[in-house]
Amino acid sequence: MSFMLDARLSADCWDVTDLELSKLLLMDNRNLPWLILVPRKDGAVEITDLTVTEQQILLQEINLVTEIQQKMFNPDKINTAAIGNIVPQLHVHIIGRFKNDAAWPAPVWGNLPAEKYHKGELQQRIQLLKHAIHI
């Protein structure tokens, strides 16, 4: 069986690239630099559903995306979360937060309106992320 991305993630995000283990997505909300890693392992709900080796790879990918967030956007804080209450498919949010963002210091969920990327802006953001990952 091939990997299938949860329909809610497909509807809310844009594909950036595939890393060693995970699909990297960009949340379609231009209010914050919001990236999501989805390990391409069918049936994975919890991080413990990954092998120890896969867990190590996921941590390396989280570190990579965090470093990219810090270099590209200089956020005041990076929020990293694997909650999955609504979307059970294992996914990790990596969100750059700013002391002046509309939701600060509260969580983004339910506190930040979604403002979709404009087409040119979206394409530019995805290209910048791809370039940063493959340097």
Automatic annotation (TrEMBL):
This protein's source sits in the domain of life called: Bacteria
Q: Which residues form the HIT domain?
A: 35-104
| PROSITE patterns in the cross-refs | HIT_2 (PS51084)
Which residue stretches, if any, does this entry annotate as coiled coil?
none
InterPro entries recorded: HIT-like, HIT-like_sf, HIT_Hint
What protein is this chain from?
Answer: HIT family protein
What is the originating organism of this protein?
Catenovulum adriaticum
